[in-house]
Write a structure and sequence with these properties.
The protein is built from 4 helices and 2 strands, in the order αβαβαα. By secondary structure, it is α+β, with helices and mostly antiparallel strands. The mean pLDDT is about 75.
């Protein structure tokens, strides 16, 4: 959904993969994607930090986990909102698809 529904708002994509992760093969199917192979399994924070190092200085970063689906236009909406409000950080509203331990917290 990131490249299909939000391509106009994306300048580049960095995918950080851990050993044994098949995301590298999936990411390789998209043009303009830089795949960074970690030498060990990383926490989410470590993977984001490594991705940030490889992103250069884009002026705007969005971190998306592999299990996240973004709605059409979500990236543009977040960028516009951050710019309009003068914010340094924004995050999407999280919606649950079905039952999860966090469903009650998201209502």
């Amino acid at each position: 959904s990131l490249t299909r529904d939000n391509a106009d708002s994306i300048d580049g994509i960095v995918v950080v993969v851990s050993p044994g992760d098949d995301s590298a093969q999936v990411a390789a199917g998209f043009s303009g994607v830089e795949v960074v192979a970690a030498d060990r399994r990383l926490s989410a924070g470590e993977a984001r930090n490594l991705g940030r190092l490889h992103a250069g200085d884009p002026g705007w970063l969005l971190f998306v986990d592999a299990d996240v689906t973004l709605a059409h236009g979500a990236v543009a909406a977040m960028r516009e909102f951050a710019d309009h409000e003068g914010l340094d950080a924004v995050g999407p509203r999280i919606l649950s698809r079905g039952s999860s331990p966090f469903s009650a917290l998201l209502q």
